[in-house]
Amino acid sequence: MEFGCKEYFKVGKCQGQKVVDGETMPLVLEPPETHKGDIESLLLGLKANKDWFEQLIIKNSAVLLRGFDVKNPQDFNEIVETFGWEDIRYVGPAPRTHIYKRVWTANEGPLSEFIYYHHEMVLIKESPKKLMLFCEVPPPEGGETPFVPSFRVTERMVEEFPEAVEEMEAKGLKYTFTALSKNDTSSMRGRGWEDAFGTSDREEAEKRAKALGMDMEWLPNGGVKTILGPRPLTRVFEGRKGRRMWFNTVVGMHGKELSSATMADGTELPEKVVKRCGQIIEEESIQFKWEKGDVLFLDNMALLHGRRPSKPPRRVLVATCK
User: Where's the TauD/TfdA-like domain (predicted)?
Assistant: First the structure.
């Protein structure tokens, strides 16, 4: 390993790892020796090798720190702040609670439900580049955080549905999502608009929505319908080998009770295309069993991620960075 990193890390393995286009996902980094797994040694290693570690995240898309003594949200926050990456506030439908400084709960929707694959804040003008997850309490069963190399979805969709992909790419996509005014933690998409926009004032909410690239329609029950579009089907990001990422949420929002996805001109998306896309995403997924103290870094530009149904208890915390 470069930059003297053998002093701080060794490459490990985890069940479920895959090699995709020559890259191991997730790349597992462990303490080089048992006595070097304390949080102080980890922070020292990360501080000494910030650029190297950031390049690892881009190269491998997912990096898992395992075997280090990361105990609580305070330790996790120290890891996040080590890099100096700018914080980005979460905007989206998932109910979440602020825990400590830059640390929040992940989606607090029922553990019995599957949270579908997505790029974090994919529909907002500025999405986080990095997503960090910390496992404080691993679930007894299920509860994995599967992720998917986004470029593989694009490659396979272009191969199977070249004309449909070309049409969606040319026209762009439009999404709608309906939210109540107050939070409903019985739903994985139950975040109310007041919490999402940080205000109960409608005019202020509209102003903030506009800044994020959304239009709003107020509903008689006090809820709101947000309209987003046009949005791209795929995107290419610097430093990621020119890969076309499947940077959309078509499968997750198409034909749902609270959401919709169409082409930007209103043309309906072909049902068989959406269904097959969902199958491809699942076929390309990668997952591992959470262990206590795990810290997972995801390149949000390159990976979709989700959450498998789980038996309680499960506590995975999150931080997002620009």
Answer: 38-319
CATH architecture of the domain with residue range 158-282: 4-Layer Sandwich (3.60)
| Per-residue pLDDT reduced to its tens digit, 124-140 | 989 999 999 999 999 99
Of residues 190 and 51, more confidently modeled: 51
User: Do 1-146+288-321 and 158-282 come out as alike in CATH topology?
Assistant: yes
CATH of domain 1-146+288-321: 3.60.130.10
Question: Is the dihedral angle over the CA atoms 44, 55, 19, 252 positive or is it negative?
Answer: positive
- Which two three-digit tokens encode residue 231? 């949005």
